[in-house]
From TrEMBL:
<feature type="domain" description="Alpha glucuronidase N-terminal">
    <location>
        <begin position="28"/>
        <end position="138"/>
    </location>
</feature>
<feature type="signal peptide">
    <location>
        <begin position="1"/>
        <end position="22"/>
    </location>
</feature>
<feature type="active site" description="Proton acceptor">
    <location>
        <position position="402"/>
    </location>
</feature>
<dbReference type="InterPro" id="IPR017853">
    <property type="entry name" value="GH"/>
</dbReference>
<dbReference type="InterPro" id="IPR011100">
    <property type="entry name" value="Glyco_hydro_67_cat"/>
</dbReference>
<dbReference type="InterPro" id="IPR005154">
    <property type="entry name" value="Glyco_hydro_67_aGlcAse_N"/>
</dbReference>
<dbReference type="GO" id="GO:0045493">
    <property type="term" value="P:xylan catabolic process"/>
</dbReference>
<dbReference type="InterPro" id="IPR011395">
    <property type="entry name" value="Glyco_hydro_67_aGlcAse"/>
</dbReference>
<keyword id="KW-0378">Hydrolase</keyword>
<dbReference type="InterPro" id="IPR029018">
    <property type="entry name" value="Hex-like_dom2"/>
</dbReference>
<dbReference type="GO" id="GO:0046559">
    <property type="term" value="F:alpha-glucuronidase activity"/>
</dbReference>
<feature type="active site" description="Proton acceptor">
    <location>
        <position position="374"/>
    </location>
</feature>
<keyword id="KW-0732">Signal</keyword>
<keyword id="KW-0119">Carbohydrate metabolism</keyword>
<protein>
    <recommendedName>
        <fullName>Xylan alpha-1,2-glucuronidase</fullName>
        <ecNumber>3.2.1.131</ecNumber>
    </recommendedName>
</protein>
<dbReference type="GO" id="GO:0033939">
    <property type="term" value="F:xylan alpha-1,2-glucuronosidase activity"/>
</dbReference>
<keyword id="KW-0858">Xylan degradation</keyword>
Length: 713
């Protein structure tokens, strides 16, 4: 072999090696890189004795092997404690232990040290194979995060029954409001070709307890209900089933007209009822465990029952009755507001759905966004939570960062979701948190659901921004157990994604945990909301004043020479009256409301004195500045990791953080330049005045922003 050929070969081998070990993010939090303390663990973990009965249990065995081989290497000592894996039915050795699994339900698991002093064992068990699979992921997470095996005892059951991703994916493969590439669902190739990555998607979802996925956009297309597409849906359902993931679809209310050839979609017309019943029966022929429908009706131009002078209950019940014999559910969205009325949008869903409470079939859940406006960077909880004692509510969160920096900004959303989940509605006394309304415990509902609008696309690393995967992870973990803290979830994710080296972990965690407040501060602080650029929603547009009033910014901030903020008290829209008396009392005065919600409920003078002693104007300026400074700090923290983490992710995050800083500064400068025209007061010390005049910011345009529906149709 000549020197030259040897060199070429060597380069090829090296390239292959670096490709194979590349940290391109594809493996998400399931990297299973060798542990530093592997030798220690190897003394405590021996061979696996598994009971295998079906595809799900086979996956559990395979995952455990994959995880252990990666984390600890492939050889095991015959003297080390064995892992007993399976249900008491599938594994005789587990049956012999005679464990009480009665509190584990269908999905819970138990991972524990078992056996005798002489013959130690580790048991990973559950009532079902699905539970065992969850147990395997929990055990591997325990190892990945380098937890102790002494006294191992992980017992857990999910708090919420249906834990769903909502994909806002179109059949054309564009994705509404997600920036991570095209839709992962390759409809044209289905059912002939099932992409291998569908398995990896399902596996990642299962690893965090997600058990359902809505495949299609809430702005729906009736084509998905055609037989040709149902075949495709069936191929996906077959792929996801062994991972415990059910598929759901969005139902376009006018489908009987669009694909059924009827002249009406009136939910009370017998031919419409028959059409949906036949369609639903047909779906179950393709997908015997089809989960049900998510419906956006009479909202933002979507068809719905009100077009026929029927109400939302008539619409939801039509579908629910046909789904019930198959155990399917309807998630009917509360995100509705009238096209014509000028009533504060904040109030409309509450008025609509409290009026219908008690009229829904038992398999209907009203799916409600965390806040009443629309996934703003920070929203007070939706007043509907706790206000429909007869009707279960599902919580809809947005993992995609529509208003929170797209997937360009590093923003860890768990703190926002925790704020919503732990908000006290007071409806049944202190402690009636949104989480408890959702899990059904406040009013004794049996069924419960939580949904996250997915931030996933066909980007190699799934979510575009390497840090955005933390949000997918956090959603699943909180859906399983809303009592987990943002810190704990950040810690798990960071260790699993970047390894356990302590200063790396500390640095990334501290960045994650600061990121949410930073983003709120540099975009919409102190209760400001809906002041984003129209259409694509990326970046500021506080001056936006065209079109229907409640789609403008000026409608929401109400800035004038006197002050700023939306009066939602008695003297204004009175949306506050939709909350419990305890909330009204606290939030009713600008002096007592938590300042983070001040301008959401109050129109306040520029010179209003804040708790800090600053005037409102000064506080607004300082908070914007704090947000920008926070991003600079994140950059400094990230730079301290150079050389300590892989070059690939280091470089990507670095570039993104620099762009985030530029954007944050732009947000601050644009908003301050604009609000200054009303406030006309000097910028306080410590605040960098906007670099340019207002016209500069107003004239700035972004083109072809990913996820913008205006670009898609
Ligand atoms: C808004 C989005 C829009 C969605 C709508 C919804 O801008 O793209 O279709 O919510 O949730 O946030 O239906």
């Amino acid at each position: 072999m000549t020197k030259r050929i040897r060199l070429i070969l060597l380069t090829a081998v090296l390239a292959l090696y670096s490709y194979a070990t590349a940290e391109d993010g594809y493996r998400l939090w399931l990297r299973y890189e060798p542990l530093e303390d592997a030798a220690d663990y190897l003394r405590q973990i021996g061979d696996t004795e598994a009971g295998e009965t079906n595809e799900t249990s086979a996956l559990a065995v395979e995952e455990l092997k994959l995880g252990l081989d990666g984390l600890l290497g492939t050889s095991r000592s015959s003297k080390a404690p064995k892992i007993l894996l399976g249900t008491p039915e599938s594994n005789k050795a587990i049956a012999k232990l005679d464990l009480d699994l009665s509190d584990l339900g269908e999905e819970g698991f138990w991972v524990a040290a078992a056996g005798t002093k002489k013959k130690k064992q580790i048991v990973i068990t559950a009532n079902t194979d699905q539970g065992v699979l969850y147990g395997v992921f929990a055990f591997l997470r325990h190892l990945q995060t380098e937890q102790d095996l002494d006294g191992l005892n992980l017992k857990s059951t999910p708090r919420i029954e249906h834990r769903l991703l909502n994909h806002w994916d179109n059949l054309t493969r564009t994705v509404e409001r997600t920036m991570a590439g095209a839709s992962i669902f390759n409809w044209f190739d289905l059912p002939y070709y099932v992409e291998p990555y569908y398995h990896d998607y399902a596996r990642a979802c299962a690893s965090i307890g997600i058990n359902g996925t809505v495949l299609t956009n809430v702005n729906s297309n009736a084509t998905i209900l055609r037989p040709q597409y149902l075949e495709k849906v069936a191929a996906l359902a077959d792929t996801f089933r062994p991972y415990g993931i059910k598929v759901y679809l969005t139902a376009r209310f006018s489908a009987p007209i669009e694909i059924g050839g009827l002249e009406t979609a009136d939910p009370l017309e017998p031919e419409v009822i028959k059409w949906w019943t036949d369609k639903i029966n047909e779906i179950y022929e393709y997908v015997p465990d089809f989960g049900g429908f998510l419906v956006k009706a009479n909202s933002e131009g979507q068809p719905g029952p009100q077009s026929y002078h029927r109400d939302h209950a008539d619409g939801a019940n039509l579908l629910a009755r046909a789904l019930a014999p198959h155990q399917g559910i309807v998630m009917w969205r509360a995100f509705v507001y009238e096209f014509e009325t000028q009533e504060d949008r904040h109030k409309q869903a509450y008025t609509e759905f409290t009026g219908l409470d008690g009229k829904f079939e038992p398999n209907v859940l009203i799916q409600t966004k965390n806040g009443a406006i629309d996934f703003m960077p920070r929203e007070p909880f939706h007043p509907l939570f706790g206000s429909t004692p007869e009707t279960p509510l599902a919580l809809e969160l947005q993992i995609a960062q529509e208003y929170t920096g797209g997937d360009i900004h590093m923003v860890y959303l768990a703190p926002m979701w925790k704020e919503a989940l732990s908000a006290d509605t007071y409806v049944e006394g202190v402690g009636s948190t949104v989480a408890k309304v959702i899990d059904g415990s406040v009013y004794g509902h049996e069924t419960s659901a939580i949904a996250g609008v997915a931030n996933i696309g066909n980007a190699r690393n799934w979510t575009g921004h390497p840090m955005a995967a933390a949000n997918w992870y956090a959603f699943g973990r909180l859906a399983w157990d809303y009592d987990l803290s943002s810190e704990q979830i950040a810690d798990e994710w960071t260790r699993m994604t970047f390894g356990n080296e302590s200063s790396t972990v500390e640095t990334i965690e501290s960045m994650l945990l600061a990121s949410y407040e930073n983003m709120v501060s540099y975009s919409m602080p102190l209760g400001l909301h809906h002041i984003m650029y129209p259409g694509h929603h990326y970046g500021p547009g506080p001056w936006h004043d065209e079109g229907r009033p409640d789609w403008t910014s000026i409608y929401y901030h109400q800035a004038n020479e006197d002050g700023i903020g939306f009066d939602r008290t008695e003297t204004g829209s009175d949306a506050l009256s939709q909350y419990a008396p305890e909330i009204i009392e606290q939030w009713g005065s600008p002096k007592t409301i938590p300042e983070k919600f001040l301008l959401w409920f109050h129109h306040v003078d520029w010179d209003f004195e804040m708790k800090s002693g600053n005037t409102l104007w000064q506080e607004i300026c300082l908070t914007y500045q704090e947000g920008v400074d926070g991003v600079s700090e994140m950059i400094g923290q990230w730079e301290s990791l150079e050389g300590r983490i892989d070059e690939q992710r280091y470089a990507r995050v670095s570039a993104l953080l620099h762009r985030q800083l530029q954007d944050a500064k732009f947000y601050k400068d644009a908003c301050l330049a604009y609000f200054h025209t009303f406030a006309q007061r000097p910028y306080p010390e410590g605040v960098e005045a906007p670099e340019y005049d207002l016209e500069h910011y107003k004239s700035f345009e972004l083109y072809h922003v990913p996820g913008d529906p205006g670009e898609q149709w």
